[in-house]
Structures are given as structure tokens and as C-alpha cells.
Amino acid sequence: MNNKPRRAQTADRPPLSAVRLLDQLRERIRYLHYSLRTEQAYVHWTKTFIRFHQMRHPRDMGGAEVEAFLTHMTTHGHVSVSTHRQALSALLFLYREVLGMDLPWMNDMARPAARPRIPSVLTIDEVAALLSRTEGETGLLARLLYGTGMRLMEGLRLRVKDLDIPRKVITVREAKGGKDRVVMLPQVLATPMSEQLDKARAVWTADRAAQQPGVETPHALDRKYPRAGETWAWFWVFPSPTLATDPRSGVIRRHHLYEQRLQRALKLAVTEAGIAKPVSVHTLRHSFATHLLQAGTDIRTVQELLGHSDVSTTMIYTHVLKMAAGTTRSPLDALLAA
To answer: If you average pLDDT over every residue of the chain, what do you get?
Structure first.
């Protein structure tokens, strides 16, 4: 078998201008419009891979070294399947997109299969108990996530222009997989969201008066429209109360509400409500889907609202419903009833 590296098919990519490897990695990730989280993860795994092999350059390594690294992670680090797959994706990206090397082992590298997990779902009464113990911006955000099925970052990254209160519609931009979708705005949240916009506008007005830099805008919009980030339309629906340094540009500006604010508030509410189930922010999304199906909403509609590419992903909630509805009778019940 020919193990010599070939040049990867990257003719449509511009040449890298950075000199250092990690800077080249960041440059290519940003060119391809990957998220900041993906950038941070890929840089982390590249660093870890290089350190594991005593600072050898990846160009001088190949499939054997990648496999040794991943094996060590699994046997000694006891990492999850998703972490294993993420590390492998980072290294394949490094070789193909940054080093321009298409090695034969790339196509043969096995990815561990993810084990299907039944999501934790709250009952309607448990959701009510949970939400009743949240208040303020975090309480509104929790209600919005449960009422729309949005992911946490989708809710936090909402822009003013994407909220249509009169039509009771929210446009979710560049969600998972880079897709847009439309979800409903619950009727009961119309007034609270209008009040939230008033609060956000006060923050935006203060920023403009203080001549603060505009909010971050996606991709190259800031180059095409340099003042877009300063407009009300692009401002955050849930702005952070403080300014922070943009991790990519280094500019000090207004970001959206910090994600751990809701995570901490929800954790406290779960304890106060006495809920014994494992609950995270994502549990609100699972509960949204399950309760819609329970109310008779067809699965295709639920699929569209969640933004799933494949209906098989949405089907997991039908399994939850079957068990909750008790459609399959235990033989013990039949025995004791006899």
C-alpha cells in the first residue's frame, strides 16, 4: 500500500498568511466560518496532540501517531465517544485543511459509534415548578427556550431583527449545521419580550452615547457594512450587563448574556423544586418536543421546529412517549390482577 502523503484537494482555499501552525489553524477555521467553540476545541486538540508526542510537528507524524493518541485518550483518559470523535475531527481538519496532506489512513480511521441515549424529559407539572422558581432575564430566557424548543446559544444569540412580536415569530439564524429556521413566539411571552426589548434598547442607547464598538456581526458583514454592528437591528435581545473582550478580534464590546447565568439559575431552581431527574438547559428543549407530540402535533412539524435534518433524530421522543403513556403492560400487572 502506498503510504506517501498526497496534496489534499484545497485548490479553492486561499494560501495561508500566518506562519505559526496554530495561527494557520485559526486562519483556516475562520475562513470556513466555523464557530468560535469549534475553533477553541480544534486548537485545544492540536496542542494536546503535539504535546503528547513530545512537541513533534504534525507534518512529521501520521496515522500511527494519531491512533496512539486517540487510544491513550480512550484507555487512560476515559473520554466519551463524542470527545473522541471531536479530537479525531480536529486532527483530520489539521492535516487536510492546514497542512494540505491527504494521507491514506484518513479514509480508514474509524470513528466510534455514538450510543443512543434516552433524553431526560420533565413532566408538564415539573416544568411549571421549575419555571416558577426562575425570574428576571434568566427566567424569561428559560420560558423562551421551553416555549420554542431553541437551544441555549440560539436563544442567547437572538438579534432584535429576528424577533417579530406582532406576528409571533422568531427566526433562528445559523443554527446547528448553519441552517436557519422559524419558530413560534408563545403568546404569553409577547409582552415580556417587548419589555425585554425596551431594556435592551436602553443598553444600546447608552453604548451609542459612549461610542462603544458595535456588537459582533457574522462572517465578513463588518467589512461590507462596517457600521452594521452599531445598529439597533443587529443588537442582542439579551445583552450582557458588562463589556468584554472579543476573543477573536480583541475588541472590547457588548456581548450577549453569559450562558452560565441561565445554567446556574436553572440548577438552583431544580434543587428548590425538588426534582430528582438530571436536568440541564437542554432538558427544556427535550421537554418541548415531548410535550408537543403528547398534545398531538405531527412529528414532521416537531422536526422542523427543532431544526433536525433527519426525522430519525426526532423519533427518539416517540420512544419517551411510549414508555410514559404506559402503552405496554407489564406481565406483573397481569399476574397480580388475575
So the answer is: 89
Residue 74 has pLDDT above 90, yes or no: no
Which residues, 6+ apart, have CB-to-CB distance to 223 below 8 Å?
none
290 has pLDDT over 60: yes
The reply to whether 285 belongs to the active site is yes
For residue 201, indicate whether it is catalytic.
no
Instruction: Determine the 3-state secondary structure of 29 from DSSP.
Output: helix
Report the alpha-carbon distance of residue 94 to residue 97 in Å, rounded: 6
* In the predicted structure, residue 282 carries a pLDDT above the cut 60: yes
Catalytic annotation, pick one of 84, 151, 157, 291: 151
Q: Determine whether 13 is an active site residue.
A: no
Mean pLDDT along residues 297-315:
92
Kindly report each contact of residues 193-199 with a partner whose C-beta sits within 8 Å and lies 24 or more positions away, as own/partner: 193/140, 193/144, 193/163, 193/165, 193/237, 194/165, 196/137, 196/140, 196/237, 196/238, 197/160, 197/163, 197/165, 197/237
CA distances for 83 relative to 23, 70, 87, 221, 296, angstroms = 23, 10, 6, 32, 36
For residues 146-160, give the mean pLDDT.
Answer: 96
H-helix or E-strand spanning residue 324 = helix 316-325
* pTM for this prediction: 0.82
Closest CA to 255 of 226, 225, 212: 212
Which amino acid belongs to residue 334?
A: A
d(CA 42, CA 36): 10
Give the closest residue to 279 by CA, choosing from 126, 76, 61, 87: 126
Residue linked to cell 425596551: 198
88, 70 contact by CB (below 8 A) = yes
Residue 112: what pLDDT?
A: 72
Q: What is the DSSP letter of 212?
A: P
Q: Which amino acid is at 174?
A: E
151 is catalytic: yes
Whether the Cβ atoms of residue 328 and residue 322 lie closer than 8 Å to each other: yes
Asked about 31 being catalytic, the answer comes back as no
Catalytic residue chosen out of the listed positions 13, 176, 261, 267: 176
For the chain, domains (ranges, CATH) are 6-108 (1.10.150.130), 124-322 (1.10.443.10)
